[in-house]
Amino acid sequence: MEFFQKLFDTSDFVPRWACGAWSTGLAWTHMIADFVIFISYAAIPAALAVIVIRRRDMPHALIWLLFVFFIISCGLTHLVESLMFYEPLYRLSALMKVITAAVSVVTAVALAGVLPSIMSLPRLKLENEELSSELSRERVMAKDLADARAQLEERSAQITARSRRFSSALAAAGAVACRWEASADIFEWQIGLADALRAIGALTGERTPKSFAELLGEEHAARLRAAAQEAVATGGRIDFSAPVIVARDYFFRIAAEPEPEVAGQSRWIIGMFRFTPVS
Question: DSSP letter at 261?
Fold first, then answer.
């Protein structure tokens, strides 16, 4: 306790000038050298502290901070040494040396603990380079995908425009294009049916028939199905007509043929039909 109470008391000692035969040049050499060391030791940890604070991703930040404290304590020790020629602060000098020794030991132990990790830093650099290369490849792939998407969108727009022109042409001709399975009479798809029904005043609401049975009735739908199955068996065409049950003054006339056979798949019929007035 007495040590700390007399930490800045210099009455028990004499200035270093009075200890030995110091020449002016030698004394000032010591004082200036210790002070310059202090200034340098103050600048170096300041720069390190800025780096650690601003670079949150700095590896082993604790070691860098320990180096900051170590260098600061060394610098303060040299500052006290430079003052000893005028103020014999031997107790403060001893305290600074103890602090510097403690920080030095802690820093040395901590550095030994992270030394294997530090030795692997070149590999980390290589991994970072590989990651950067992978990110570059992903950016190239993303660009390629964006280009492909743009091409698909352009192609889709072209197909949509072509489909609209086809639908307009069918509507102008009063015709309907359709595709259905030979063994059934349910449309897989149809184009122009709503316009054709609207033209003959047979469209109720917005719902269009989903099968030939809704247009022709079960009996005539069965006849059309038999004609489709015969066309599949013989490879011939379908030319079929029947009265329309949704518009009694019109006849249904269709020309169609089977699509090429695909192993393991049902046979499909594709064709066009129209509604013609009963003569």
Answer: P
